[in-house]
Write a structure and sequence with these properties.
41% of the residues lie in helices and 16% in strands. It is α/β, with parallel strands linked by helices and 106 residues long. It starts with 6 loop residues before the first helix and ends in a 6-residue tail after the last strand. The N terminus and C terminus are likely disordered.
Length: 106
């Protein structure tokens, strides 16, 4: 039997440093004050290490209401950039740092 998979989840698993549960733990150790937000298509292991899991339908409202000043968004850098842009457009971007999983120093 062939198993299907989501390309986003596969990308998280294949990243050697940041896209696995171990990678999320490393990011949390580097940025302990940050809230880790993961996309719904992430693996169960990544979701377990994240603080909140979002969908494309609720990501803006959830991220806008997080108390953290720093947000790490996994696993998709493009989605992170889109969320940041939309929240700035809405005038609710109050965080010092908001970055995707492959931009740890941004």
């Amino acid at each position: 039997m062939r198993q299907s998979s989501c390309p986003t989840a596969v990308r998280v698993v294949r990243s050697p440093t940041r896209s696995t549960a171990e990678g999320v733990r490393k990011l949390k150790a580097l940025y302990p004050e940050a809230t880790v937000v993961c996309y719904i298509n992430s693996t169960a292991e990544v979701k377990a290490e994240s603080d909140v899991c979002v969908t494309s339908g609720n990501v803006y409202d959830i991220v806008a209401n997080l108390p953290a000043r720093r947000v790490i968004f996994v696993p998709d850098r493009l989605m992170a950039q889109n969320v940041r842009s939309e929240l700035k457009r809405r005038g609710v971007m109050k965080r010092n740092h908001f970055f995707g999983w492959d931009l740890p120093g941004a």
